[in-house]
Amino acid sequence: METKKDNWMNTTLESTEGLRPVALSEQLKSRLKNIPSEITVFEKTIPLSAVWLAAASIALLISVNVLAVRTIKKTKKQQETTIYSDYFSYIEQDL
Question: Could you tell me if residue 2 is inside a domain?
């Protein structure tokens, strides 16, 4: 006993039986043969000094960012300490 799913699968598989391959035109064949196996985009090389300059610039940028983050964290801690000490200073005055 075939179910609805089996019928659908069989119908789908049988639908490709009448198909035949499409013939390639000569123009398409020649275009496919003319595709190069390797494509060279740039003939020029980058000078080694430029590579080192880029690497040094990136290292400097990272260092400046790390230093900035550390400075901001220290400043934030100092501000929090100042805020808390100002807020709770009235308790120390009464003692």
Answer: no
Q: Distance (Å, rounded) from C-alpha 15 to C-alpha 11?
A: 6
Q: pLDDT digits over 45-92, tens only?
A: 778 888 899 999 999 999 999 999 988 887 777 666 666 666 666 666
In-domain check, residue 61: yes
- C-alpha distance from residue 38 to each of 29, 34, 45, 53 (Å): 19, 12, 18, 31
Sign of CA dihedral 32, 36, 38, 40: negative
Is residue 25, in this structure, part of any structural domain at all? no
Residue 74: which domain range? 46-95
Q: How many domains does the chain have?
A: 1
- The answer to whether residue 93 is domain-embedded is yes
Exposure string of 62-87, with b = 16+ CB inside 10 Å and e = fewer, is eeeeeeeeeeeeeeeeeeeeeeeeee
